[in-house]
């Protein structure tokens, strides 16, 4: 997970992340917006990078998608395994390397978020992350506007017991393997998969 470069500069876009990694001789294989952010591009809620808490967890109530409880945390451990937890159940420990908080949860232990309505006309481009039955991570970004229920249902059909909403129409995806090369954007946290220098 990325937010700032080593000298404190905001990375902001998928293209900037790609260039930043190439300078270190790392190839960017995939990237997407890692959740919601404030006007200064700082993360909304918890952000952990390399084991350091750079933004504290947010357990408050408010208005908007992020606060449609339960919201949750997507995290990666130092051994490379991944998990999604509701905010209420998340416990930080030394095994967690990276984490980002977002909301709402889409799927909670195999069940669609109770506030979602199947026939909702609240349509938008939406993105999320889920954990498959074998522990692998799956990212989804809709190419057409969808409601929350449809996005959650998609994750369930993939076999995910837990999935978390990341963001809406501002989200971008970089996946050159599928000729999907959106390198623009102006984000806070970015999630990337890279091929380290061999």
Describe this structure in words.
This protein has 198 residues and is mainly beta. The chain has one domain (14-58, 65-114, 123-195). It is built from two helices and 14 strands; from the N terminus they run H-E-E-E-E-E-E-E-E-E-E-H-E-E-E-E. Strands 3-2-6-4-5 form a five-stranded antiparallel beta sheet, with no helix packed on it. It has a five-stranded antiparallel beta sheet with strand order 8-7-11-9-10, with helices on one face. A hairpin with a 4-residue loop joins strand 12 (173-175) and strand 13 (180-181). The longest helix is centred in the C-terminal third of the chain and has 11 residues, at 148-158. The model has no long low-confidence stretch (mean pLDDT 95).
Give short descriptive properties of this protein.
198 residues, mainly beta, five-stranded antiparallel β-sheet, 2 helices, 11% helix
- Strand element count: 14
Q: Which spans have pLDDT < 50 for at least 5 consecutive residues?
A: none
Supply the number of structural domains. Answer: 1
Query: Which descriptor suits the 3D outline?
Result: globular
- pLDDT averaged residue by residue: 95
Structural class category: mainly beta
Across the major sheet, the strand order is: 3-2-6-4-5
* Amount of beta strand: 25-35%
Sheet having the most strands: 5 strands, antiparallel
Order of helices and strands: HEEEEEEEEEEHEEEE
Structure summary:
The protein is mainly beta. Helices cover 11% and strands 33% of the residues.
